[in-house]
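The data layer described in this paper is built around a simple, fixed record for each protein. Such a record has a labelled line for the sequence and another for the backbone structure tokens. For reference, a complete record is included directly beneath this paragraph.
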Amino acid sequence: MRRDPGPSAKFVFRVCKPWGGAYYPQGQMALSAMDSRLCSFLFMDRTLRLGMNKHDKVIRAVHQGGDRLLMTVRGHELYSDQPVEDGGEDTAATPTEIFLAGLAGCVAFYAERFLRRNGLATDGLAVTCDYAWAENPHRVGEVNLAIEAPTLSAEKREAFTRVVEHCTLHHTLQRPPQVNLKVLAPEAVSSP
């Protein structure tokens, strides 16, 4: 389903048929009562599991030399770098690639939960993401996500599509958050 969240980005969800090809649902689809309950359960389950307290929401990116960064999230470590042609050493994905990988992972998480909760195998489940740049200002201008769900039945395809469209990052991109940037004075900077 093609949705236009605004002038800066376009998102395309495509559910792939198990035998290849693509299925594009037509028009807007309202959530059935069952789908609404499933989406609520997915969100509540994730909220309860993560705890969602103030400390869980802190992510820190620390310069490691060159263009390399170390990002810490709830005790986990992620690294980023830039490609050689952009002055980096290409030791890790770029922050933009990590951002888009997070979107693909979020969609895959919702897809996996739908399949399991509907008694369907998750074998072969994959989400592929490609994107295009836009300018003025430089940004990601279009994101295309293709979901491969070989065990998905035709009867469940529309419900599946509605559920994966409720991925938290998809919603965040459709309704962008307010982003506040503050440059700290040297005396305000503290060690973690």
In short: The first helix runs from residue 33 to 50. The chain has a mean pLDDT of 79. DSSP finds four helices and eight strands in the chain.
